[in-house]
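BUG: 3D viewer hangs when loading the predicted structure for this chain

Environment: internal workstation, default settings.
Expected: structure renders.
Actual: progress bar stalls at 90%.

Input used:
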Amino acid sequence: MTETRAATFTRLVLVALLAALLSLVLPPGRAAAASVQEVTGFGANPGALKMFRYVPDGLPAGRPVVVALHGCTQNAAGYGTGSGWTQLADRWGFSVVLPQQQSGNNASSCFNWFQSGDIARGQGEAASVAQMVDRQLADVSGDASRVYVTGLSAGGGMTSVMMAAYPEKFTAGGVVAGLPYGCAQAAGSPYVCMYVGATQSARQWGDRVRAARPGYGGPWPRLTVFQGTADYTVKPVNMTDLMKQWTDVHGADQVADVSDSVAGYPHQAFRDGSGTVVVETYSVTGMGHGQPVDPGSGGEQCGTAGAHVLDVNLCAAYRLGRSWGLG
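Structure tokens produced before the viewer hung:
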């Protein structure tokens, strides 16, 4: 059956209109955006976690990898988008690993940063996340010297775990409203750790990290911490304790070498003996418990506000990415 002249004309007009519309919504030469995808069979997975990832379309080999761990009641895809990490992956060209907790492990979908069997090297959830990193590097031919880990709340606690138990895998980490490594054990309870803090010296905190990877001589991951001053779920003392823990691990003192403000918020940096910044802290004045974001299209903006993802005119993912040399 052949088309009439009118039908042919109508079809050509519709095709032209569709092409015009696509040119408006997609940048020249750019395919539709990638999406968060689940990966199965990534290893023995002793912690029974799920693995999701975001890989920008056309990502070349040799690019960095960021592991982003969600907070309680959140999920992998929602955190990846809300925090701004998938947005920055498209902008700067890196891939994102998004581990996801299962309700069978924790009813509130919190990573078990406080369970001894999940925070030791080669065991439980820590080992599962490490296996995700290995799988991602193999699949995308990523740069093993530029792998970073970050997370919110319980995900921040698990970020500390990964930095301590698998320091050779990560160049740096970003803890958002999270806890020092071994805090629940030091305080005798995760709730005491969260609401009160643990009484430990800098050396005692550092010893907990060193014990997680016996005999390891470094290099250790650098640390950046974001903490709201009005956070009543994870008290700000935990940021101070994280600073003590990781300055000690790096052989630095606990006196800030830089004290300034970023986006109006107090920021400090701590250097080791060679002058390298090994710990940074951002004290987000007036912010409650959540991930700092700054939604918008500006160069320093990223993220989408939501539950425990708070618009405070500072995007933590952007600040981390810049300090890690991603963009």
